[in-house]
Amino acid sequence: MLAGKFYTVTQQEQTSETISTAIAWNAAHPIFEGHFPGQPVVPGVCMMQTIQEILGNALQKNVMVRKASNMKFLNMIDPNKQPAVDVEIKYAVLETQELKVTAQIKSSELIFLKFQGLFTVKQ
């Protein structure tokens, strides 16, 4: 949905329970014309959609957020000042087949979003 247009994956490493992805924002994307003119900021909903897409693509499953136990937007992302960020996702498959996920979007030591919650696998 957003991949390839709003952001591009530049590097990805995956183990059995972690996904580490480097992405580059498209600062020319039309979303930034309205959010906000002259001072672009990556919308929080787009940060969450990015995590959802990266998780789903890595697992080759269609996933959806079911519950956000803890979601903190700690800093704004200006795509001109932070043109590239890292998305780190840790997950565990529960007996219910849901995914328990901890994720963050960051650049070096600067953290933009922290998330803990559950994803469901859509059939």
TrEMBL record:
Domain of life of the source: Bacteria
InterPro entries: ApeI-like, HotDog_dom_sf
Domain ApeI dehydratase-like positions: 12-91
UniProt xrefs under SUPFAM superfamilies: Thioesterase/thiol ester dehydrase-isomerase
Name this protein carries in UniProt: 3-hydroxyacyl-ACP dehydratase
